[in-house]
Amino acid sequence: MFEHISTQLLFGQVLLGLINGSFYAMLSMGLAIIFGLMNVVNFAHGAQYMLGAFVAWILLTTLGIPYWGALFVAPVIVAIFGMAMERLILRQLQNLDHLYGLLATYAMVLVIEGLIRQQYGSTGIPYQNPIPGGVNLGFMFLPYYRLWVVVFSLVTCVGTWLLIEHTKLGAYLRAANEKPQIVEAFGINVPRMMTLTYAFGVGLAALSGVLAAPIYQVSPSMGSNVIIVVFAVVVIGGMGSIAGAVVAGYALGVVEGLTKVFYPEAASVVIFLFMAAALFFRPSGIFSGKEST
Amino acid sequence: MKPAHLALILGFAAALAAPFYFYPVLLMTILCFVVFACSFNLLLGYTGLLCFGHAMFFGTAAYMTGLALKTTGISVELAIAFGALVAGLLGLLVGYLAIRRQGIQFAMITLAFSQLVFFFLLQSEFTGGEDGMQSIPRTPLFGLVNVDDSFNYYYVILALTILAVAAYYRIVNSPYGEVLKAVRDNQQRVESLGFSPERVKLVAFVLSATMAGMAGGMKATVYQFATLTDASWQVSGEVIIMTLLGGLGTLSGPLFGAGIIIWLNDELAGFGEWALILQGAILLAVIIFFRRGFVGELSALFRWVARKRRGDGGTPPPVQEGATATGPG
């Protein structure tokens, strides 16, 4: 039935799916960290991803800082902005129903996206590829930059997972969410840890944004387009489970890519359909993470 | 006569006189969103369910009402009812899956489903894709009364709004409404009393979806077109802002919330992105400082003033916390 599909197309789309999956994985990991440790669903995650790309572009055009510098500087700048958001807004809401955290971060999306759009317009801005060229693998052409994205995101995801699950710092973070009073009694500044956790998650989003800039165009709506898909990924992976978020991110990216080959009409909705199926068959999540209430 | 009755009569008189002084289309838009915000308040304010994709019902019904009017000759009120019915069925399907998860995940899941519906509408033939569904005819009311003129049609929309708000009032104040509030406040207790919280929530979800669909169908007949915007997450967010701004779990809150936001959108229409930026700022201010919303804060102020006059009690009542803030109104 599918003989007419060339290997070129098939592998090309799988690679594209792996690229999208890299961004889904990094973003849903950031969401899972912020949710798992702070009980905030960070709706602004997409906007912060978009800010990462914009800051990289602004650094390049105004200060001449190239991609490799922006990869480090832009996440730090956006993370500092995230710290301010946590201090000024999220801190006021931490004892309320979790829905308020979601709504407050949604409000931030409207403000951030609106201001960026007002300032820079709605059209996408191209960002130059820092590693042009590629290698011909025989069955397909592999651009170097895409290879870099997949490798870099894998390293970031595994590194973050190790940091949170297998270090003392990670143990403190998880304990601070479960029993803040006890952790404070050990002399640890829990509010500051929360601020840094949020900043770390925001920095991860911005890092993904810089990584995405040369592949997708830099545009104000790039964040809101992806965040809803990432929400579905997190629901499938199980809320608050970092490993679940990462695995589901890559897997669903590839599934989306394969759908583009075999049934292109459904490509934009296949992840949502997976979510519906997951809810139907596994109501508590495929990788059973922490259940929220 | 009680003050509440007087306010009701004055409000009704003002609604009857309004199109003589204001642009009828703007007034009708406000009324459509009043119905939409009521449907949303029924879920979040009274049941404690945050649906972040309510525009899927609004938008789907707008297209369905438009489709019915374009392809059949049925009268306008039946077409709106058809749109509401389809939205209710969609609500049954989505609600069946979404209520398996609670709280914050329910919000994320409904948002994802609304995006699924959005893409479906985008790719379907009958919706006209990016262009939207144009030139929807406004057939005579009951097959008899010509309502082509916006001034006349305003009174039809007003009647439908009163009908919807009355139904909303009836639901909230019925024994079933009490069960809804009980599910919101203490689900385990409700379960131990022999009710099925899932079932109560699903019924509320379907009722709310139907009412949101009615609002969408009304809007499609007012503007005589339906677009993808009606089903977008931005509109889902807008109805949340309206409801919170008006006052969560209040009866007249949706009226004020929808009125203020639609009026602001209209005033700021020529200023680029500032309408959205302001909406975000309003939502932030409401969440941080005025969680009871316009009606809730106002009635708290009145109660405080009244108590001051009587000379007992000095401080205003503390802000109720959580998504469960209730107020009269």
Automatic annotation (TrEMBL), chain A:
CDD domains: TM_PBP1_LivH_like. Keywords: Amino-acid transport, Cell membrane, Membrane, Transmembrane, Transmembrane helix, Transport. One of its GO terms (molecular function) is transmembrane transporter activity. Pfam families: BPD_transp_2 (PF02653). One of its GO terms (cellular component) is plasma membrane. Its main location: membrane. It is found in: Cell membrane. It is a multi-pass membrane protein. One of its GO terms (biological process) is amino acid transport. This is Branched-chain amino acid ABC transporter permease.
TrEMBL record, chain B:
The chain crosses the membrane at residues 49-66, 78-99, 106-123, 153-171, 202-220, 240-264, 271-290. Pfam families: BPD_transp_2. Coiled coil: none annotated. InterPro entries: ABC_transp_permease, LivM-like. Residues 310-329 are annotated as: Disordered. Its main location: membrane. GO terms for cellular component: plasma membrane. One of its GO terms (molecular function) is branched-chain amino acid transmembrane transporter activity. Keywords: Cell membrane, Membrane, Transmembrane, Transmembrane helix. It is found in: Cell membrane. It is a multi-pass membrane protein. This is Branched-chain amino acid ABC transporter permease. It comes from Zhengella mangrovi. The lineage of its organism: Bacteria, Pseudomonadati, Pseudomonadota, Alphaproteobacteria, Hyphomicrobiales.
